[in-house]
Amino acid sequence: MDEGDNAKVDGSLWFHEFEHTGDLGIEVTAPTRAELFRRAALALASLMVEPESVRPTEERELTIEALNDSDFMHHLLGELLYLFVAEGFIWSDASVAEGDKTLNVVLRGERFEPNRHRFRGEIKAVTYHQLTVVGSPEEWRARIIFDI
After folding, report:
1. Which domain holds residue 113?
2. Residue 11: per-residue pLDDT
């Protein structure tokens, strides 16, 4: 995606990229906390690989533990990045269930195949720099910066 690209779910804007001094940032919006984490997971995947080429043929489950929402976001995206880099798994669908101090994440995707999947760009790390997760009864928002 080019800087300034947006992604939509059900016709509503939920994901926007912004440039940040040699890094890449995204802002994600959602109606609920669980949906915010789900959309952030999908946004990360779409930054790395063209999502239309990824078939949901396998499932992977993750349980993320943290003390606050910013840590949940950082740990979740860090684990997902590791899953892609170390195991070559890319996802095109996700679901998130909230537990007591946990997020239970189910990813649906497949093993990355360079001859079939269009690689969009390397992400080296999820940073804490300007990481925010804020919620209200009407909307949840997150701002995340990735080291590229």
Report:
1. 6-147
2. 41
